[in-house]
Amino acid sequence: MSDAAWGPGIATAIGSMPGSDPVEVARTVVGELPGLMPFPELPGRGVGADILGRTAGLLVDLAVEVVPSGYRVASRPGRDQRRAVDLLRWDLDAVEQAASEAGAPRAVKVQAAGPWTLSAGIELHRGHRVLTDQGALRDFAESLTEGLIRHAEQVAARTGSRVVVQLDEPTLPAVLAGALPTPSGYGKVPAVPEPDAQRLLTEVIEKLAAATDSPVVVHCCSARPPVALLRRAGAGAISLDATKLGDVSGSFADELGEAWQEGTTLFLGLVPSTEPAGEARLRQIAQPAFGLASRLGFGRRALAERSVPTPTCGLAGATPAWSRRAISLTRDLAKLFADEAEQ
């Protein structure tokens, strides 16, 4: 597997963007982030454009529908599933058009909910979460993997670019902690043991990496993402919110240090996802990254070579003006890291 999907001077974004015009947004990300362009997501369009609905649109031989409590497994594709598929198709057309106008990006990063977030967020017919049924969990993981491989192939064919897959796992910490409520709301879904969570992620990551010949990114923006588990599962990069980490010490510092030492790239969320009250100063924004590298015992060269700056999370809640500014600042951070490495 090639590991040159990123390097010094490369920046990217998490994926979601404000607005509802896929052509306009595609032109923005193709033009501003050609090194590692995030396939744009526009959750503001509603059902089928949010993380779960959008990912459901990728599933092969499985369907979901919208019910009052959220997304539920459906016996056959209906209006909600067709809407998700149509939105994704329109986005693919928009990215192809933007790439033909501005030139193909060096690499495109496609995002989808990971198997644990997807199976935690979709209900079975009786209201229980998919992850509580081992057979259903397996079916969804396999369907997701196959759908993502097909999607990556389509993106590569349409753009001529290398494709990197990012699995979004915001719910994974709650899955591991047994913090998800049962349908009644009075109990909690039992915690999934770390070896089981790792085993399923490993299977998905290995298949995606083999199909794309690229390392897989796993994004988790909790204050304490399960770094060691994700590294052992084979994640080539771990995307986290560097502004939430606080005082990195103890076992968590060991996890981060070992991941970096073993060659796992850290996608560091640094630029505010919504416009801050004060002035956005580049060096101030970069400070959590400099501090983290120093705390873990790595120099500025390692920061440039083994990290990719991003916004702290998706930009869907930003104004269009701030989303463009945030992307510009993220690019400036990548340049700053590269420049600092040369000094």
Oligomer: single chain
Report the average pLDDT across residues: 95
> How many helical stretches?
12
Coarse shape? globular
Going by helix content, strand content and strand pairing, the class is: alpha/beta
Describe this structure in words.
Strands 1-4-6-7-8-9-10 form a 7-stranded parallel sheet. It has 12 helices and 10 strands. Helix 1 packs across helix 3, helix 4 (115-121) packs across helix 5 (134-159) and helix 5 packs parallel to helix 7 (194-212). Strand 2 and strand 3 (70-74) form a beta hairpin. It is of the alpha/beta class. The protein is globular and about 60 Å long. The chain has helices at residues 22-32, 51-56, 79-102, 115-121, 134-159, 172-177, 194-212, 227-232, 250-261, 282-296, 300-306, 320-342, and strands at 37-38, 63-67, 70-74, 107-113, 122-123, 162-168, 217-219, 237-241, 265-271, 307-311. The mean pLDDT is 95.
Q: Which SSEs are present, and which pair or pack?
A:
Elements (H helix, E strand, L loop, with lengths): L21 H11 L4 E2 L12 H6 L6 E5 L2 E5 L4 H24 L4 E7 L1 H7 E2 L10 H26 L2 E7 L3 H6 L16 H19 L4 E3 L7 H6 L4 E5 L8 H12 L3 E7 L10 H15 L3 H7 E5 L8 H23 L1
Parallel strand pairs: 1-4, 3-5, 4-6, 6-7, 7-8, 8-9, 9-10
Antiparallel strand pairs: 2-3
